[in-house]
Amino acid sequence: MPSTVIDSVHYNADTEVLQIVFTTGLLYLYYNVPPIIYEELIHARSKGAFFNKKIRGNYPFKKRESQI
User: Fold this and answer.
1) pTM to 2 decimals?
2) For residue range 53-66, what is the model confidence (pLDDT) as tens digits?
3) What is the DSSP string of 12-57?
């Protein structure tokens, strides 16, 4: 998943928690994210643009200081 903004993405379908590690090293957990949003993110041509349009500001989140 090459991206200039997102380093890695992990998703737990049971809890609907999306974990995104940005290239800055910051890790965010997004809650109540439907599986289709995760699927669309990993297949998006531009992961950063998809994140800004469909995820950022649309789901509750928590910033983590370090990776899990």
Assistant:
1) 0.90
2) 999 999 999 998 76
3) ETTTTEEEEEETTS-EEEE-S--HHHHHHHHH-S-HHHHIIIIITT
